[in-house]
Write a structure and sequence with these properties.
- With 269 residues, this protein is mainly beta.
- It is built from 3 helices and 12 strands.
- The chain is elongated and about 130 Å long.
Length: 269
């Protein structure tokens, strides 16, 4: 074999197909409208102001309402904003403490204790965690129940009403939501929330006062609520194969002759 023909044929036979491909991870942050929800709830609450134990249980309980919007950024945590409020019953034991002035339709006991009425509206924000997803380490798409603890801060405006004064207060809260997925777009919730704020009702006795609320509500998901899994996207690859065909023919009176035919093929788009 002629040496000048050997090297080209060897190079051709050793050549292989080449493939070009790109990979891309789809992030769960891409679609902001997914896992966005609106919720509303109503229930009862009580204020642990000084003297609350001396008031009949029925007078300790007052109604509360809330309207909020939330967003889950991934299966494990999200944020929530809400407007909430309505009323509290405040208490003041008998003694040397002066009531709000002027008194107006406030229930005063024989011992000088009195009950007054608070009307308020609050705004709050909190961060929420899917406890059961965190324990599982993944999204539980078909789960009917989730336990969602949360903690946050807020602001409350107390209205001047029946002897109480107008005040603006900084608030904090922590709680847990029992979330029941009854439909692809709807959850039913049971929230238990503990709150605290400056004790403007009776700052002489305690600096802070606490509250407790229990609400039943619903959440509505207008968009997609399942998270998009990180996936690998492989675009349409462009394959170019180099097909090496070697022809050998006999030539009388000469050495064998090697001829080369290079064929290039590409797939259709």
């Amino acid at each position: 074999m002629n040496i000048k023909h050997f090297f080209p044929s060897a190079l051709l036979l050793l050549s292989g197909a080449t493939v070009t491909a790109q990979t891309h991870e789809t992030s769960v942050w891409e679609d902001f409208g997914s896992n966005l929800y609106i919720d509303a709830g109503g229930g009862v609450q009580t204020l642990f102001a000084p003297g609350w134990k001396d008031i009949a249980f029925g007078k300790q309980i007052t109604p509360s309402f809330s309207l909020g919007v939330g967003k889950w950024f991934n299966p494990f945590w999200g944020i929530h904003f809400a407007a909430e409020g309505y009323s509290f019953n405040g208490f003041r034991p008998g003694g040397s403490y002066d009531p709000f002035s002027p008194l107006n339709r406030v229930d005063v006991g024989y011992d000088g204790s009195f009950r007054y009425y608070l009307r308020y509206m609050g705004l709050n924000a909190d961060i929420r965690f899917s406890l059961l997803n965190l324990i599982a380490g993944r999204e539980r798409e078909e789960a009917l129940y989730d336990l969602v603890p949360y903690i946050g801060i807020g602001y409350a405006h107390m209205f001047a009403y029946r002897g109480s004064t107008k005040e603006n207060l900084f608030t904090g809260h922590a709680g847990v939501r029992n979330r029941f997925a009854v439909h692809r777009m709807v959850d039913v919730n049971l929230d238990v929330t503990a709150g605290w704020t400056d004790n403007y009702v009776n700052p002489v006795t305690d600096r802070y006062m606490a509250s407790m609320a229990v609400q039943v509500g619903v959440s509505f998901y207008p968009g997609r609520r399942a998270f998009r899994k990180p996936t690998m996207k492989v675009p349409v690859e462009t394959f170019r194969y180099r097909t090496d065909t070697v022809f050998v023919r006999e030539v009388p009176g000469r050495d064998k002759v090697i001829e080369f035919c290079l064929l290039y093929t590409s797939p259709s788009p």
